[in-house]
Amino acid sequence: MKDNKQFSVLNLSRQDVPIVTEDIKTRYQWVPVGILDQDDYFGLLTEAYNTSTTNAACIEGVADLIYGKGVFTKEEEKQRELDKIIPPEDLRKVSFDLKLYGNAAFQMIWNESHTQILRMYHMPVQNLRAKKIYDLGKIEGYYYCSDWSDVRKQKDKKYLPVFGSTNEEIEVLYVKEYEPNRYYYSLPDWISALQFSFSEAELSNLHLNNIENGFLPVAMVNFNNGVPAPEERQTIENLLEAKFTGTRNAGRFMVSFNDDAVNKPTIDTLPMENLHEKYQYVAEYSQDRILVAHRVVSPLLFGIRTANNGFSSQSEEMKTAYSIMQTMTIFPFQNLILNSIIHAFRVGGIDISDLYFEQLTPLVILSDTADDTDQTIEEVQKDIDDNLQGGEGEEVEAQMEEREDLKDIEQEPMRPSDYGFHRWYKDEEE
Length: 430
Fold this sequence. Notes:
Structural class: alpha+beta
Distance between the termini: 100 Å
Order of helices and strands: EEEHHEHHEEEEEEHEHEEHHEHHHEE
Number of helices: 11
Strand content: 15-25%
Largest sheet: 4 strands, mixed
Radius of gyration: 28 Å
Strand order of the largest sheet: 1-12-11-13
Shape: flat
Number of strands: 16
């Protein structure tokens, strides 16, 4: 007797490891960057930040440490000028972009005679694309667009030259680290955890939809009107896969083709054993990989609690983790930003030197150290600043007071341009 019962298993969830490429063969004047031929690189990074709790905590925590308390100069009389040229909030945004995207940008505003820089504003790096190079020369400029998903419909594209290359009023200072085999863009230091960030996000979707669907087990779809030809079966399976793929549908389907309902398989449900253990393992593994990619020695540094503790006490763990984080991660980011600013000042006729970031120290470290040394928290912070910068505490304190005084200073008029970035307008009376 011929057996007309046939079924196949459809795995409705698959995630390939994303490979980011620079499309140097593009027909455009700029170089797209993303997965395959899609210009979605910055969008992917934003999504991984918005949907992964662990990734978001790490990015925000490291970005806060990069900015610290801002940039200072030991030349006290120059501090006011420094804060005027680079508004602290813009510097904070640059620090965040550099951590999240691996790239950052300043909008450089020159005076009319192009002899001195007036302002350095943050520029959304995700809105910039590098001009294509047709020889081995340097990048000449960047195209600005508010939305690169469909550039043909966007009318706000504008070309901006690289800083120091023209006599234009507005130029772009692009900040990025060296990246092997990449010329136009850099990858963030956590790029190896991109797929694990998506895994963490998908687990959240999986749990939510399992709850909404009443924790339904794996199901079987029966077709009881006969067994179709192989081509037709494949078409049906492809349609089901396209419709039900992903964690939002929480599970896999089995498809069965039968002559009638009598011949359907006797298996109605396929429960998964120890499913919660499997979820927990994937969640913990994804979290661990994200932390490793960000080089987070102690998750507690960013308010992340895990099942593993690396040190004998929380206090010792925090101190050790902070020291390693500052040396291995924070200082390189800060040096990259400082080197870019110093270069800009030299080219832009700004006489300010000895720039440094004032570090942000976790309160638990300050408190524990104060208890151990019979000092106040303020005294401990002063000692840390002196050791890191080699300066005098009174000088640092005076600079902090100077920055507070800037809040009461009337600022020169500024307004956003039609392209979504700042433009400097000189007082006509001057």
